[in-house]
Structure formats: C-alpha cells, structure tokens
Amino acid sequence: MRLIRRHFLGAAVLALAPTALLPLPAAAQNWPGKAITIVVAYPAGGDTDLIARVIAEKLSPRLKVPVVVDNKPGAAGTIGNSFVSKAAPDGHTLLLTPKTFTTAQQVLKVAPSSAYDVINGFEPIVLTTYQPLILVAHPGKGYKSVPEMIQAAKSGKGVTYASPGSGSPMHIIGEWLNREAGVKLTHVPYKGIAPSVTDVVAGHVDTAWLTPGVVSQYMNEGKLVPLAVADPKRSPLVPQVPTLVEAGYKDIVNPSWMGLYAPKGTPAPVVAALNQHVNEILKMPEVVAKITAVGSTPGGGTPEVLAKATAEDFHKMGKIIKELGITAD
C-alpha cells in the first residue's frame, strides 16, 4: 500500500499544468510596497506551516518582495487568527489556516479581546489544499473495516480512539460517528498529533483519527490499518480506503482543507492579484509534488469557493458541535 501513488502525481501535474500569466488588475500594480507576512497560527514544522512556506517561496519572486512565514501558535489557532483580523487591510498581512479556523471559537472560551468574526472578519483569497481525515487502527486489534470496529464496540468490547486534542476536527468526527452508529468509542485526547500517532502505532489506543501525511509510513509498513476517510468520496491519495458514506454513514462527511485569507477591507484588486498568483503556484509540478508528499491535494478556484467552504463549515460543524456538546480543554 503506497499513500502517494506515481499515477496520481503524474495525473495531478498534467491536470494542473500552468496557464498563461494574465495581467494583474490595474489598482493592484503599486502593491506590494513592503514585505508580506503569512501568519500561521500553529507551530513550525506542521502541515500548515510547510504549505505556507511552499507558497511563500514561490510568491516572493512573483511579487518582488520578501514573503515570510510568522508562526503565532496557541489557543487552537485563535491567537494567530485574531492577530490577522486586526492587522492593517493593505495586503501585507495574510493568514494561512486549516478549517479549524471555522470551529475553534465554537469549542473554546475565547476572551473578547481575542475574538474574531469568521464569516465577516476576513477576505477569503483562495482555498489552497484539501486533506482528508483518516481513521486508522492498530493491526493487533483485528479491525479491517468500520463495520468490524462498530460490531466489536456493540458486542461489549471497549474500543478507544485517539485525537490530537479535545475540540479538534478529529474529536468532532469521532463523536459524530459514535452518535450515528449508536456506540461509545472512548475518546483519548492528546496534546497534538505526534503523541497520538505514537500511541496508536504502539497499540496503547485502538484507533485514531489523523491525516494521511503523518501515518502514510506506518500504513505502508503494515503498522496501521486504514479503515475510512471522512471525505464525500474516496481520496486520490488513498483510493483503496472507503469513505464513511460507503460504510453506511451517509451523513458523516467532514472534508478538511486549508485556506488563505486577508483582513477584512483588503482592496479587491489585491485579493484578485493574490488569488491569481496562488492559483498558478498551486499548478506548478514541484508544488504539487510537495503538497501531495504531506498527504494533501492542491485546491484553487475563486475567493468565492473559499468563502462558501468557510460559511458551510462554520454553520454545519457548529450545529454538530452544539448537538454533541463538544468542548476543548
């Protein structure tokens, strides 16, 4: 089993072949006037940080100014998100964030000084990448599918699932599956992805909701068994892994993504210019290769695509969070 398949990478490169550079909007031609900062609200070294740095590296020569990544971690991303929401709307401070941006304030108690408006407080620029959530199991547990895992839980066997933390998308989907399946898999929250991976590989927890990039090595070596993805259809990254929909849970769809935003009020021509540049960057073969290597696929499209994803997740996942009573530590 190989997570990143050669045929997918080749197809992605062909499908995303570069297009001709279009003239930038006239009002954006005097921008940028100084270095641009892409804020990442998580520590250096993670998937969000890596993708931000890939984009920054390619964006800098196009704009002829330095483009730097500034990590502002803490409070499930709300510190960095809030910082960008209050930055000058001049196109020089941006935010690259995973979809937890839409739910963090719904599971955390955020001080008014750190609060931000998910729907109206930012200018969406472009949806940069998609990244499926994947359920994996330790092979010693004997589960080869979601139905087998659910049957074990219904028969009285205690089944545990790890997540990178309470209130995370992985926690949300784990409890969502509990409700829909009528079982109670026990949630074991960790302080981040790394320790949850370590413990499911060691067999200290039975299963875990994670992302493909951090478990591909263990799946390839047979140390973890993939059970399902939470996307609406099978991911090209792991086409052999069925969806929860295929397992009989038609309503459990929770695709993960990352997006690039600017503070509210950033001039439309600047947003348009950034959207054009990043769309073209996401089509570069070397960028496609780096993105797929960490278990993601390139996104793209208009700012409206990101705006729609933001609003849909804010409302849909907010409803699930409230119904299930999910909170973060």
From TrEMBL:
Q: Where is the signal peptide?
A: 1-28
Q: Which residues does UniProt call coiled coil?
A: none
- UniProt entry keywords in alphabetical sequence: Signal
Q: Could you tell me which InterPro entries the record lists for this protein?
A: BUG (IPR005064), Bug_dom1 (IPR042100), TAT_signal (IPR006311)
Record field: transmembrane: none
Recorded family membership: Belongs to the UPF0065 (bug) family.
Q: What is this protein called?
A: Tripartite tricarboxylate transporter substrate binding protein
